[in-house]
Write a structure and sequence with these properties.
Chain lengths: 728, 126, 165
């Protein structure tokens, strides 16, 4: 019943692609962790069974699901990696450095292949690496001990828990407990099931054995053996969960005898909090689609707006109501405001994941680069439990990768050079993350040679890059270096309009600006790593696009520190980017029902209103250029997006749809720029603000007219003269 | 017209969803899922199961052990088990069938083939 | 309006329509050249548009228009001075901005009636520095919401600002 590839089922499978990518990501992250743990076992044959099993399952699952969605290259490669892990486990082969490298390369290539599949890009052929793995496996096969030759031919694997039980039977002074759990529908309904108990027991001690058995009454029970090093005599919470337990005495010969402890007589001690917390976390994990959280966030946003309307009404009532009646109303409104803020924070928190995922990858990067550049580098991580928005994790990977790569290739000196300088041969790169108030701080520090200001300036001059401020095109000026740019307006002025003269006159913010300028690269970078990094320009643009800042501190001979600061909370939306009257606007995708193309000849004019026929009915067409008083070209056709519903359905015509992308929504706080029809602003990576349209407001007839009336130059309520706007 | 329960056992959530989707056209079926062997056996104890789709390579308790356990237990002996395992584990085919699996399919599987096999087994053929 | 009369304070000096103004440097977040301001439809006329500053969306207020002078095109000398007053951040568009200066509290006089006609109500004090007359702005008045939103400032009538010394 072997089955051909699933190509015919493409429609069926398309449904699961997102699941596939999400699960692959989890397995790859797990595999990376597992591989790091495995590195300690290079040159050894007695590898920790649990590490191997975890890795084995990661690749096994990747193989299975890749096969299902038809990513053959990933399926084949994962299979080969699984085979090698099987050799390590079943033949107790020695883990060679080549084998370790191949596993790491394999995990990297799997990730690459999967992301290529995701991007519909040509898929890298894994054959070369597979051949390497094949050779490594053959070698392991030839070297395997004769007495183990039968295992591995059938994949009925011995239960790892039993194996470790035997190992432990030798006895090392630990306490071993036996727990029995009888599952019941009532317990299961309360979430107390075998997974929950198992997770709880893993907190109690080391789980050595878990198996079902049939009770004398014909029912099912689970039996667990757990070893603890601490003197625990009772587990009251477990007892509440329907678990009975007894102390187990292990005999040196490997046989086991049970000494029953009178459970009722055992002193009751408070259960450790960690058991509770961890076990419930293990059994209550939910995977949520980011889009659903965004939707939730949007609803919270709507609530916030409704509340502010309510507040407005309450304020109006102050004069009309007696104070004893008005005050409780106002207090309730204020309480609601606080609660909404908490709710909003709560929703944001759901999106948070530990930054450790990025940090762990850097272990591999540093390892590979150190080898490539013949340097000795150790990576120190701290704060990898710091939680950041999932969206940020994806966006930050490349910038951090680039900084770390630069640190290894340029920052850290060669071992001999370091020795000559009186530094330890091994360089150190520290990656730190921390959260403070409303921001996340990520630091990358190396103890290398520092950024050579002279060299940077020479390079900048050679490439015609100066610090000329935003207008002249040096990319980093703006929020990225803002923190330091005010420290000396005098110097700033000199640098902006004069030339850069000497290295000692340049401060670190300006140095950063130079190395982040588009087109800037040091020679070494161009020679050795070109085409691999994203460039400091992209690093600074990415961080700025996320609403963050990048800072540099460097000292010649001592090292370099990059500090990335990012806002903790981000609102992200999918948006259409449109163009009208030479300006770009973002329209949240959620509010757009449809995008259509309209021929200018299709537009009918009814009493000054543009109308088109859309799905057999008349649809008012508003031109964004006219709503916003923007210059209008003669056009043969327009694009329009349909917004609103029922009688408020309108088409909003724009010159062009530029594309679709995720945007970071920045709220507009200042009343001077809070206007109808504009929901916020975003930045598309070039530092320029792009307004986000509030499509719902545009669709409301009253609003639309009001906006248009103003922009058509009608006088404002005051008698102020109308001035022509010089900005374009 | 009684409702039948199918238990899907696989440690990959994506795979479970794919299996479930392959079987969703079957009538009068309720589905349960388990992510490991222990949980699968617990499900058996909690409410009646009429068929099991079982992965082999899972943490703690290998699928073959699940098959063996089910077959050795009077109350569950008759439950048909379809072993659905990843390509490359073919060596375990005979072991699975010997232990008492009713069918052995490999992943990647074709949804209609899996569904057809489930239908046959539910209708009492083997 | 000067809370502390003792010692000297640092100010940032800028030029607008031939007049020299000063703002307290501690209220200034940063100063930058202007690359592009995104116009905001339906915003008050003195609000040129929005810019990003440190990840925040802030209004760019054209101080010429705000004070009733005629608008001039943005050029290389034009600066955006980002100030922080209370919880608000606003960018002020000025003709050019040059330097930090330190002014002795004793060198600052209260505004003179005679020159309070134009930007008078925004003036916190007048100082003489190196023979130049510098008008010290009360920034909270400059960015006063009610005034800008209602747009009550009169059109420029041609009155000359204080002469430079």
């Amino acid at each position: 019943m072997s089955i051909a590839g699933p190509e015919k089922n493409s429609e069926f499978l398309a449904e699961f692609l997102d699941d596939y990518f999400a699960e692959s990501e989890e397995h790859l992250a797990g595999a990376r962790r597992g591989l790091l743990a495995l590195e300690h076992f290079v040159h050894q044959s007695n590898i920790d069974r649990a590490s191997l099993d975890g890795l084995f399952r990661s690749f096994h699952s990747l193989k299975g699901i890749s096969g299902m969605v038809g990513v053959r290259a990933a399926e084949r490669l994962a299979h080969q990696m699984e085979s090698y892990l099987r050799a390590l486990r079943d033949w107790q082969a020695t883990l060679s450095p080549e084998g370790m490298d191949a596993l790491i390369a394999g995990a990297g290539l799997l990730e690459k292949i999967i992301s290529e599949h995701r991007a519909h890009a040509p898929i890298t052929d894994p054959s070369q690496l597979m051949a390497r793995l094949d050779a490594i496996i053959s070698e392991a096969r030839n070297n395997r001990p004769v007495d183990n030759s039968t295992t591995g031919s059938v994949s009925t694997e011995p239960d790892p828990l039993r194996t470790s039980l035997q190992a432990l039977a030798i006895g090392d002074g630990k306490n071993v407990w036996r727990f029995d759990f009888v599952p019941k529908p009532e317990l299961s309904a309360r979430g107390i099931n075998v997974n929950y108990i198992r997770a709880g027991l893993q907190q109690v001690g080391e789980l050595m054995h878990a198996a079902p058995r049939v009770t004398p009454e014909g029912g099912i029970a689970f039996e667990f053996l757990v070893s603890t090093s601490e003197e625990i005599t009772s587990f009251p919470d477990l007892f509440d969960d329907g678990v009975t337990y007894a102390r187990q005495v292990l005999l040196p010969a490997g046989g086991a005898a049970t000494v029953d402890v009178d459970v009722a007589a055992a002193p009751v001690e408070p259960m450790t909090a960690s058991y509770q917390a961890l076990s419930s976390r293990a059994s209550n994990m939910v995977r949520v689609d980011l889009a659903r959280l965004d939707e939730l966030m949007r609803m919270v946003g709507d609530l916030v707006i409704s509340r502010s309307r309510l507040d407005e009404r309450v304020k109006h009532l102050e004069a009309a109501l007696p104070a004893p009646e008005w005050r409780p109303l106002q207090e309730t409104s204020l309480a609601m405001e606080r609660q909404l803020r908490d709710l909003r924070e709560g929703v944001m928190r759901v999106r948070m994941v530990p930054i450790g995922e990025i940090f762990e990858r850097m272990q591999f990067v540093v390892r590979d680069l150190a080898r490539e550049y013949e340097k000795q580098v150790k990576l120190e991580l701290s704060g990898h439990q710091t939680e950041i928005d999932k969206f940020l994790v994806e966006r930050l990977m490349d910038p951090i990768l680039h900084l770390v790569r630069n640190a290894v290739s340029h920052g850290i000196e060669a071992p001999n050079e370091r020795t000559a300088l009186g530094k330890p041969r091994e360089g150190t790169i520290a990656l730190r993350a921390s959260a403070a108030a409303e921001t996340i701080v990520i630091e990358m520090e190396d103890d290398g040679r520092g950024v050579d200001a002279e060299q940077v300036i020479a390079r900048a001059c050679a490439m015609g890059i100066g610090i000329r401020g935003r207008g002249a095109g040096a990319g980093a000026r703006g929020s990225g270096v803002g923190a330091e740019s005010i420290s000396g307006p005098r110097e700033y002025e000199k640098l902006t309009e004069a030339k850069i003269e000497k290295a000692e006159n340049i401060d670190s913010a300006e140095l950063l600006e130079l190395i982040c300028a588009p087109g800037f690269s040091t020679r070494a970078e161009a020679d050795r790593a070109s085409g691999r990094g994203v460039g400091m320009n992209v690093v600074s643009n990415t961080i700025r696009g996320l609403g963050g800042t990048l800072e540099l501190k460097t000292e010649a001979g001592k090292g370099t520190l990059f500090r990335i600061q990012l806002p903790l909370t981000l609102a992200i939306a999918d948006a259409l980017i449109v163009q009208a009257g030479h300006h770009r606007f973002a329209v949240p995708q959620a509010s757009v029902r449809e995008v259509i193309q309209i021929d200018a000849s299709e537009i009918k004019i009814l009493e000054n209103n543009d109308v088109i026929v859309y799905r057999g009915a008349a649809l008012p067409l508003l031109r964004l250029t006219r709503l916003f008083g923007l210059p209008e070209d003669q056009r043969e056709y327009f694009h329009a997006f349909i917004v609103g519903s029922g009688l408020n359905t309108v088409g909003i015509a724009v010159d062009r749809i530029l594309g679709q992308r995720e945007i970071v929504v920045r709220v507009i706080n200042d009343p001077l720029i809070q206007v109808a029809g504009v929901a916020g602003a975003t930045e598309l990576g070039d530092g320029r603000a792009v307004l986000i349209l509030d499509a719902a407001a545009l669709a409301r007839p009253a609003e639309g007219r009001r906006i248009a009336a103003h922009n058509n130059g009608l006088p404002r309520p005051s008698n102020k003269s109308v001035e022509s706007r010089t900005d374009a | 017209m009684s409702m039948k329960r199918i238990l899907i056992v696989d440690d990959s959530p994506t795979m479970r969803r794919m299996i479930l989707a392959s079987l969703r056209d079957l009538k009068d079926i309720a589905f349960d899922e388990a992510e490991n062997g222990l949980e699968a056996i617990e499900q058996l104890a909690i409410s009646p199961v009429h068929l099991m789709v079982l992965d082999l390579n899972m943490p703690d308790m290998h699928g073959l052990e699940v098959v063996e356990f089910v077959r050795s237990h009077q109350a569950y002996r008759a439950i048909p088990i379809i072993v659905l395992t990843t390509r490359g584990d073919e060596a375990s085919r005979s072991a699975a069938l010997e232990a008492g699996a009713a069918a052995y399919l490999t992943k990647p599987f074709l949804p209609n083939v899996l569904c057809g096999r489930v239908r046959e087994l539910l209708n009492g053929e083997s | 309006m000067l809370e502390e009369q003792n010692g000297s304070k640092t100010f940032i000096i800028f030029e607008l329509a031939g007049t020299t103004y000063a703002v307290r440097s501690r209220l200034v977040q940063q100063m930058e050249m202007i690359e592009e301001i995104t116009p905001v439809p339906n915003a008050p006329a003195s609000v040129e548009g929005v810019v990003f500053s440190r990840g925040r969306v802030i209004p760019a207020l054209n101080l010429r228009v705000r004070f009733g002078f005629e608008r001039i095109p943005i050029d290389l000398r034009t600066r955006l001075i980002v100030i922080e007053v209370g919880e608000r951040n606003v960018g002020l568009i000025v003709d050019s901005a040059r330097e930090f200066i330190s002014i002795e509290a004793s060198a600052i006089q209260p505004p003179n009636e005679a020159i309070s006609g134009l930007s008078g109500k925004y003036i916190e004090g007048i100082a003489t520095v190196d023979n130049r007359i510098v008008l010290i702005l009360d920034l909270s008045e400059v960015i006063n919401l009610a005034e800008i939103l209602i747009g009550d400032q009169p059109a420029h009538t041609g009155a000359q600002p204080a002469k430079q010394g």
